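Quick check before the chapter quiz. The format below is the same one you will see on the exam, so make sure you can read both the input and the output lines.
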Amino acid sequence: MTTAFDEQYKSASVKTMDVLRPFTWLRMGWHDMLRCGWVSYLHGILFALFGGLVFFLARERFWLLAGAFTGVLIIAPIMATSLYALSRALERGEPISFNVVVNTWNQWQKSHTNKLGDDYWCLIRLGILLAFAATGWVLTSAAFITLMAQTPINTPAEFVQHIILAKQGWVFELWLALGGVMAAPIFASTVLSVPVLLDCKVNMFQAILLSWRTVMGNPLIMGVWAAIIMFAIFLGSVFAFLGLIVAIPVLGHASWYAYRDLVDTTKWPKR
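Here is the expected output.
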């Protein structure tokens, strides 16, 4: 028996793109960042300030530092919701100001008469789900390093010396592989689900399923996109986090165009 959920879910089609298409998303994201100006840069500044603060407070506590940064990376798609809204406003020809960010959340409130409904809390539920995923990764990572490392790891310097720069063993490579295995389903669940939730009146499960369908239908291009995201955040972080001032806005705006390119949700009700 076909349900309304099935009919709505099937009405969204997934498109395939060239493997180099992510670089077009980056170019479009760069242009959006320049057009949005300080409103866009503000997101990157906040990320950079938070990164610097966390590093300063936890620089001698490796697992606290790793946990904080892992959590930020995982919930970053939700934190970048305002950047998606700015790109949508540009797409619609609307004037850009901080009011776009404020109005996005105000309209979210006003469009839900039933505050106990499933779709009203979908972003919060997704954030909680991702927070649990981040906690699981940090605990798993800590257990793995504790078991495999020849010496206790307590600080970032010790991790670099005894894990990354170790002359013998494959602990670092295995740790990266483990991280990739655990990160893949998280990426598949979030890469498009948050833009979908912003744009369409659907619940969390519909958005996540559509995100998974897109990744499964475009595994190579989404793998390239995941690598670009990680590389950009890494480069943005190594230079005292100042690079995040640009990297975060560009990636956020570009993610909106990834959603627009890969998914056709014209038959889904809009917010």
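If your answer matched, good. The chain has a mean pLDDT of 82.
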